Hints:
This protein is an all-alpha fold and 252 residues long. Helix content is 75%, strand content 0%.
Amino acid sequence: MNKKTLTASFPAVLLVAHGHAHAANLIDDCTSLVNSQQYAKAEAVGRLAVQRTGAFEAFMCLGKAQHNQGKTKDALQNFLAADKIGREDWQIATAANWLGNAYSALGDNDKALEHHNRDLAIVRRQGDQAREATALNNVALIYDNKGDLDTALRYYEESLRIRPNEEGKSTVLNNIALLLNKKGNKTLAISRLEEAVALDRRLGNHHSLGQTLKNIGGLRRQAGDFEGAATNLTEGLTYLRQVGDKAWRPPV
């Protein structure tokens, strides 16, 4: 079973990279492909965008496409490149968010916490409540990984409380559920995951839905509900294969 990070996107900006509208269109195309969860296609377009523009947005989009396919080490290099050239607060915060996610995926909790706290400080200063909720979830995730479950739960619950819309709530519910399972409350954990599944279905977020179904299937298998587990795992893995997420392997 896997906990989930929340990710930040950059605001819509007018990009005319090196004076070529076509180069700017590559970044738009990459972003659209990532948003529609066509990660392999986004990676191909993102590579072209990086080659032709060298822009912050190009490195970020390529990194996001790779990260969502489980190519975390490749993604990290692109996030580092973006972080080096980012100058505005929104660029620094966005790069910090994704760097934290990448380091977390690679098991480096100290670097992950450093970058997520950097993101949190910026978005709090800007008064961006949605981005603050995202950063709070990601800080919580690191404390969760470190085994400080009470601190993690406080951050998760604050993230859920201040989030101004439904986007991202499924991720936080997922993470709270897995923490509750660690604390031995499997029944409440499954209930929280069922909330997350319903939310993902309503929003049509197939990537998140696949991840959450895989998690609820794992918990049901632990609880001895093998039929229910098989149903959830099969459906979840179908969605994950559909979006090309190679990081979420079938449980053994």
